[in-house]
Batch of 2 targets.
Target 1
Amino acid sequence: MARTEKKKDVVLVGFGWTGAIMGIELANEGLEVLALERGHDQATVPDFQYPNMIDELKYGIRYGMMEKPANTTVTIRRSLDEEALPYRSLGTFLLGTGVGGAGTHWNGLNWRPMQSEYRLKSYVTEKFGAGVMTEDMTIQDYPMTYEELEPHFDRFEKVAGISGTAGNINGKIVEGGNPFEAPRSDEYPMPAMPSTWDGVKFRDAAKAAGYHPFPSPGGIASKDYKNEYNMQMGPCNHCGFCERYGCYNYSKSSPQTAIIDALKRKKNFEYRVNSEVLRVEKSTDGKTVTGVTYFDHKTGEEVFQPADLVILTAFALNNVHLMLVSGIGQPYDPNTNEGVVGRNYAYQITGGYTLFFKDENFNPFIGTGANGFCIDDFGIDNIDFAKEGFVGGAYWRAGQTNGQPGHTMPLPAGTPSWGAGWKKGIGEWYGHAMNIGAHGSVMSYRGHYLDLDPTYKDRHGRPMLRMTYNWHPNEIRQTQFMKQKMEPVAKSMNPTTLQEGFKKEGAMFDVRPYQTTHNTGGTVTGDDPKTSVLNRYLQSWDCHNLFVMGANTFPQNTQYNPTGMVGGLAYWAAHHIRKDYLPNPRALV
Amino acid sequence: MRDIPGLPSRRGFLKASAATAAIAGIAVPAKAEQKPEPVALTEYKPDCLKPSEWVFVMAAVARLIPSDGDGPGAIETRVPVFIDKQLAGDYGKASDWYMVGPYQPAASPLRGWQTPLSPLEIYQQAIPLFDDWCKTTHGKIFAELDAETQDKALTSLQKDEMKIKPELREFFGILLANTKEGYFSDPMYGGNHGMAAWKYIGFPGARGSYKEWVGKHNVKYPLGPVSISGERG
């Protein structure tokens, strides 16, 4: 039988980056705030402590920090006429769990999208004509401008503690930074991190080719740092265990490092772990929500938690799932192209070159998740879509993140996968290879979406989230363009041998190898309730006291890692909830 | 000087060390004490593998990462112990995975793990089938074949020339993956004995501190590995 808890002003569903941001911003407003986290509690000490944390088998290979598919997963199919099958063991994306969420085990790469990405459809149409878009492409503009978001990007970067070199401060191009970035109001809060040899080699080759290299911007502390909540970071020691691990050194940006300890001290804030929200409850007229029902894993019972304001702050896929199982908003139907919840799901496309240098030492175990140098010369703003025949772009980066041999062992093509030849190969090539990667945008399409699976159910009996996604010819053209541009740069570095890894025409989505966890869309923000779930303040069009954060709000995926945008949007929404919504709760648009 | 409650007294520790050194009259050894050698693989009592399965795993990993040539093999690094312990635990039971039907084991391999079997069940069911195939094709079970024929048989298994049933399709893939995991994982999991695989390739294990080495470009890092439990190589 369900128990009912005492009403709160605000309930947050999920306690990662956006839950922590909303938690502290609304607690600072004096509200009674509760965060419900389905996973366990975790903190730098004792959960991320040295040396137990840097255990490749436990965390890097068996995925000890991730949500177990046994508890939560999705089903995946590549087309409307294929049967979706469960994502039973982890591969292509890694979904986090517990306090801090994916913000604990990310690499730290932190970006703001390029200027054209906020009004992509208008930009594409005005500059190249609507004909450059494929017929099934459903991209759209963000309903807010970069100028409106800028102060919130700046704030997130200062809270999270991002190291980098600005390239454009208030329109003035700064030598050494990214000259193509959208103008920022201020420098990064910390100077860029130093790079390992691979990044420096790439920087020099890119410069020689006439491109504009700059240090990778990332949530890795290059010096001692204190943010506005008095949370402290210490300089990184380049241990080479960022992605898939929690940071034992208080150096990687995370909800724990940047916000949570400050938030825990507030008497009007509470968080409950092992509390998995099953659905958002609607009022009888369906125009507002009354709270959430969650499963308390400690007592084994369902709990109704009433609240005046509900904010979904879980991972992108979970936010969309909750909207669907709660029946809020019309589910998207790709056959009629009507409905909105689940619409415009997108992933990320990556490719690259691996270069082998027989006589050079890279010490690949010296790294950070945001190591090295990037170029943005092939970013969305810089490509002639009409000439090249696709819509999109990519940033390139070279910078080793880890040398953990169990899952990071690049070997030249033709090396046997086992036996004497393999053993000889690892002895010859470990430490003598580097990579240049292209991290590309993915547009949204009529046939790529999220809905509820008709067959598979989760452990609470709810239909699983079903993902329909495959590589689209537009993205294959984009990634093949990157290959063509990258090849001469890679060859100019004179490696002993090199090999490419870019997707080719006809490539099918393969769920086995890790690719990226950047899942976007499904509850997108927009100006029109017919093509969006949320208005420009990330407020539900259907229920005004429901707000939804996360990369699920992106109308299409950008060419960058999503966290910077997710953080910026959360501060934007928090600002408008505090300033406009709380004094007079209503539909803000 | 005040002592912190709950921690050993600093002064007490200094006094005790001085006294011990004075009484013993010996220098404190610079190197941590070496752990005693573990039981020989032939004496090892597996946690979950049956004798015939153990014999197969011993023989197979010896070909997947052979002992001859530069670098240690899977046998010296005790990879079979690692595999036995992994299969006996959560990994072997697929405890973390979504293992609820309906299953479509014959779906495209690109769609990931779709067999109803756990890794341990796959080892248990595939080993006798593969041994039967070796007997029919090469006259003896796998472990009794000479090295060259074993390599041929493993190649056939990798290429699925024996047309193993789809439920067991992942067998070669997990056998090879588990072998490499045992070779490279921290020694506390039973393999990578003496951190020999790390020493061979030059991975410093759990050192995890390289701030002063970031700017030393194209210079080989000089220190050997340490393990999570404090072994030094």
Target 2
Amino acid sequence: MSNADSTQSVLNRVTDRDVLRRIGLYAVMYGLAIVFFVPYWRMFQLSVTPMSVLSQGGFHWIPPELTFAVWQRYLLQEPIIYQWAFNTFLVASITTAIVLVVDSMIAFSITRLDWPGQGIILAVIMASFMIPGYVNIIPLYTLINDLGLMNSYWAIILPFAAGPLGVFLLVQFFRDIPEELEEAARLDGFSSLRIYARIILPLSTPILTALGLFVFIWSWNQFLWPLIVLNDDALYTLPIGVVTLRDVNALAPNVIMTSLALASLPLFIVFLLFQDKLISSVQMQAGTG
Amino acid sequence: MSNVETTGTRSPSRWERLFDRSTRELLVGMLFAAPYLVLFSVFLLYPLLKGLYMSLHEWNFLEPSKSTFVGLENYTRLLEDPAFWNALWNTLEFVGLTVPLIVGISLVLALGLNKELVGSRVLQFVYFSPYVLTVSVVGIVWAQMFAQGGVGTQYLGWLFEGSPLNSKFWAMPAIVVTTVWWQAGFYFAVLLAARQNVPARLYEAARLDGAGPWRMFRDVTLPHMKNALLFVVIASTIFQFQVFGQPYLMTKGGPVGSTETLVYYLYELGFQTRELGFGAAVGYTLLLILVGVSMLNYVLVGTNDE
């Protein structure tokens, strides 16, 4: 009896401690989530607070009055945000398409074909991996200027597409595709182009999706470089556009916050749709680090 | 290919008769490699070399032919320029505060979410989502939060008397907080995967040995996450070293230059005062610093794999 009692009390202690631990865990994780959520709440909350409340000053978590006037204005009356969103979409999609095609082609050439000098070329590309994009901006600026590409989307797309990350990822992935598949295809008389298009690319869908998603997001979000090479409102991308809206509406936080929320929506939707894909893509990148 | 010919399923094409196999592979190989190599040479290698060349000149933007060779003068001027040292110091302060916070917070998030929690997908969404925002959204929202009457001054106003963004001391920490919120989610995802890859049987074994949570963390979790943690430290260091958007949007490098970072300084030289030769020298110096960080990475990871 006493034996059973003590077992029981040990069990109780263990479960008590476990319960406490779980409560602590939930408190920390949800507490942090609330902290992480505050900027989103402020963005939304200020965007629906009428100017009459804002101009009184004072701090609110929940505005005493609501208005969707600014949302209406940007969604229905002023097309500028749509224009910028379209521009950004154009830049990001073209960049992504170029990166996927061009990077997979060279990765195919280096890993599946055999020609002299490919080792050196790969080494040079890998070494350039250490060079962070921003350190090159001044010479790149003079180059873009000489090529007459200022104020054009190619000025944003081409330097981005020259980055080595995609080649790096794809070379690693293509290397692990078994040779046998390709040899069988060669015996059947497949040309290199068909092997690339019919065998290697379909087998690489996961890594291509991962790369594509990230290139799209990064190029969508570029800030410094478009700020330098674009100087025409109509050509602006969203990240640059919202800054000019802020400068114009410095005294109207509701206008600023609405434009920020609208500017964030497209990628938020992408993230909602591809949450798992995106998270696992992060891990693929890190796997190569 | 000879196989194909002997089995007679296909006769050699003109292309195959014209070149032997290795020449064909070279031609096809170059054809596949060419598009990227053109982009790479024109938009990455060439600017890199041109940057070195420019940094040795007093560069004339409008008429480059009128640029004069000055040797290492731009570099010696750089070393004597207090604005450079200020920017370097600010960048180091920023990186030194941001990286440990990112590593710590993303590790806590990853270890916490590794347990089965109700609502873990929602939590994951909340932690990771700031990463998909552009820096201008992040910078402007947080500038508002730290402005007079924002959340920051409402609750922490006693610390900085007015907005932290107007304080020489607090402006940088405010930018650090902003950056941690923006970036931690990415590294959280990296660390979560690393944690999930630690074999569960190791924890079973440790439990049988009577190890408590702390010992399991120290002897099982940490050693198995070492590579991922190293990746997080190096990748975030290199990325944060290039901080630009947050100070540009939140403080314009102020007050009194206290948040002017290296890339910000580079931006001003290149695109406001147009000292392109000198700016290129700053770019090259930044490059050397970051290559140094990367080399350190290779050294650390290299010894680690053995």
